[in-house]
Design a protein that fits this description.
Elements lengths: L2 E5 L8 H14 L4 E5 L5 H4 L11 H5 L6 H4 L1 E2 L5 E4 L8 H5 L8 H6 L8 E5 L6 H9 L2 E7 L8 H13 L6 E10 L4 H14 L3 E7 L2 H5 L7 H4 L4 H32 L1
Parallel strand pairs: 1-5, 1-6, 2-4, 2-5, 6-7, 7-8
Antiparallel strand pairs: 3-4
Length: about 270
């Protein structure tokens, strides 16, 4: 079964896109065929791999009345296991384009169905909002991963995200599960980061990933060179952090699938 992971937080500046790019690259590095889909109109996940002129078709064409098939939009990267469904600024118009369509929340799920068997993991980078793009991502996903910055007021706003998650689980996607919360931009030298870590752990407990993504200038520089941290600075702390996170993600996804299989066996018996 393909694991489809939405990376979401309606707060900006929490390392969401950095996590999407480098988690996808780290999964690919471990031999997992991985598709990174850019649903953010800023298209930073796309720009990290391609020039804008390289993108002929984007997720906008896929989601706006199925003007393009998903298979025709997917672009290969330098890594043979990593592929990108590119975004572009036109995605900002999608809310208006899909207004009033009864199946609007299911556009991405339907578009992904024909290509899922080609991938082990699909990573969805979402905009910093809880609009139609993020809802499409969560309806299509098996898991939700929430990056939270190690800063004061970091948890502010997560109530709205979790409320949206519960609404998605209530009807359109009961199988959606929180895979975990990952702390980003962590600086172990500061009291703020340490205090925030304890606050986040007290709120989220067992779903908090052990891996913390530290502040690292190489993570900020790598997209400018059209590279992930694994190729730009493979020996950097940032590369090590995302490799560890990928290992944890794989472990958790496999555990969830094992539990689902066990429950199905019990129900059958």
């Amino acid at each position: 079964m393909t694991a489809i992971i939405t990376i979401a937080n309606q707060k900006g500046g929490v390392g969401k896109t950095t996590t999407a790019i480098n988690l996808a690259a780290s999964l690919a590095h471990r031999g997992k065929r991985t598709l990174l889909i850019d649903l953010d109109p800023q298209a930073n996940s796309t720009i990290a791999f391609f020039e804008a002129s390289d993108v002929a078709l984007s997720m906008f064409e896929v989601l706006s009345d199925a003007r393009a098939e998903m298979a025709k939009v997917i672009m290969p990267t330098k890594d043979p296991n990593l592929f990108v469904g590119p975004g572009r600024l036109a995605l900002a118009k999608l809310e208006q384009v899909l207004a009033g369509q009864f199946d609007a929340p299911y556009k991405l799920k339907d578009a992904l169905a024909p290509v899922l068997r080609e991938f082990d993991y699909v990573i969805l980078d979402t905009p910093p909002s809880l609009g139609i793009l993020t809802v499409n991502a969560m309806v299509a996903s098996t898991h939700l991963l929430v990056p939270i910055q190690a800063a004061y007021f970091a948890i502010e706003g997560t109530d709205d995200l979790l409320e949206t998650y519960e609404r998605i689980r209530a009807r359109p996607n009961p199988a959606l599960q929180v895979l975990g919360v990952v702390i980003t931009l962590f600086d172990r030298r500061t009291n703020i980061s340490r205090d925030t870590h304890e606050q986040i752990r007290s709120v989220f407990g067992g779903v908090l990933f052990k891996t913390r993504i530290g502040k690292n200038v190489r993570l900020e520089e790598s997209p400018a060179y059209k590279e992930t941290i694994l190729t730009f600075a493979p020996k950097s702390p940032g590369a090590a952090d995302y490799k560890k996170l990928a290992a944890e993600v794989i472990q958790r996804v496999e555990r969830v699938e094992e539990n689902r299989t066990a429950r199905r066996a019990e129900d059958a018996a």
